[in-house]
Design a protein that fits this description.
By secondary structure, the chain is an alpha+beta fold. The protein contains 14 helices and ten strands.
Length: about 400
């Protein structure tokens, strides 16, 4: 490929995105209605650039992109980059455009990682459900009041452990309790949902059971039960494996079926953990391992908070906050797609760091992640007059 035919790496990166799906999302919510110069695609590219390079403010985004003014057209940005224009776009253009587009990418990414192993060989899909709180300033974000002097939003995430791809993401005010998110999930029969003790609500857990799905969680200290019988343990780490029914009146009413109670002893920390599940067939040690892999969702939250821009926001409205979070999730999933399609060995963090310093380079994107030197070559046409032999 000739040097003058090469795209900038940012443009090559955007080629991994399904542009048709993006424009379909824009049309669904009339995102470009009465827009003359700064389209939703321009807005997305500017915000994607901000996430990839960890820009600190709208002024920072404007200064960096205007410094590369001659390259913006080739990057796909047609409108004039302005702090006020971008702020207005984040404020008024429907955040659901970027939420729906992120879900499209999530579907593609999950197909790419469907055969990956997360440490346990199971045929079922395994999800980890948890939330993280993003603190906000109450005076700037009064719509997100959390406590008397504090504002916050919660990022509820259902993480597919194969590839650590967020399957479902729900953004709520900080006051919303985690357990209520179970009501909004479309449960998948046969799947395993790993949750912590904050999600224990026996009526909601029984709904999971009735759909043919499974849950794995830890028991609370005040949980009352009646043991039906004990099963043989296959490992010294498993102290007991019991089949039980709830004994408390309300718990028994909400969950009348059998459950399984497993006590696990950590050989390193000597900590005893007691698990509760409706899966009566998997080995007890596998149940304990499943809960251990729940920490992948915590690692996901830590990753996006450290390496993407979701703790400080470019706008103060609810629409601007949700737009920024959804575009950050889009970038995370995009990097995961690039890793799989280019068959890269580097971690997502390393890929993101390389992209952040090479976005304006005219280099094949795969070459940016390899140690092989790249030499720009200008190919001469066959009929080019040769003055010197």
């Amino acid at each position: 490929m000739a040097f003058f035919d090469l795209k900038f790496i940012l443009a090559q990166l955007m080629d991994f995105l399904p542009s048709y799906e993006f424009h379909r999302c824009v049309q669904q919510y009339n995102g470009n209605y009465k827009i003359k110069s700064f389209s939703c695609w321009d807005q997305f590219l500017c915000m994607a650039f901000a996430q990839l390079t960890y820009r600190e403010s709208l002024r920072d985004i404007q200064a960096c992109l205007r410094a590369a003014q001659l390259k913006l057209y080739h990057l796909g940005i047609r409108g004039k980059v302005s702090r006020n224009t971008l702020a207005h776009a984040n404020q008024v253009r429907d955040w659901r455009i970027y939420a729906d587009f992120a879900q499209t990418l999530i579907t593609k990414a999950r197909k790419l990682y469907i055969n990956d192993s997360f440490g346990i060989e199971l045929d079922q899909t395994v999800y980890a459900l948890d939330s993280t709180t993003i603190d906000l300033c109450l005076s700037l974000f009064p719509w997100a009041r959390f406590r008397k002097r504090k504002a916050a939003v919660k990022l509820h995430t259902l993480l597919d452990l194969r590839g650590s791809i967020p399957s479902v993401v729900i953004i709520t005010p900080g006051k919303v309790h985690d357990v209520r998110i179970l009501d909004q999930l479309v449960l998948e029969p046969g799947a395993i949902y790993v949750v912590d003790r904050g999600y224990i609500d026996f009526a909601r857990l029984y709904r999971i059971h009735q759909t043919g799905a499974f849950f794995v969680t830890r028991t609370k200290n005040n949980f009352r039960f009646r043991r039906l019988y004990s099963q043989k343990t296959e490992s010294e780490s498993i102290r007991f494996d019991q089949i039980i029914v709830a004994h408390n009146f309300y718990a028994k009413r909400d969950y009348p079926a059998k459950m399984r109670r497993i006590r696990y002893l950590d050989a390193v920390t000597q900590k005893r953990l007691t698990f509760l599940t409706n899966n009566l067939s998997l080995p007890a040690l596998t149940i304990a391992d499943l809960y251990r892999y729940r920490w992948h969702v915590e690692l996901f939250f830590k990753w996006i908070k450290q390496h993407l821009r979701i703790k400080a926001f470019y706008g103060t409205t609810e629409n601007a906050v949700k737009t920024q979070i959804w575009i950050a999730i889009t970038i995370y999933v995009l990097v995961a797609i690039v890793k799989k399609r280019l068959k890269l060995d580097q971690s997502l963090y390393t890929i993101l760091q390389i992209l952040s310093v090479t976005l304006f380079e005219k280099t094949p994107i795969l070459q940016a992640f390899t140690e092989m030197p790249y030499t720009n070559q200008i190919l001469l046409a066959d009929k080019q007059l040769k003055l010197f032999e």
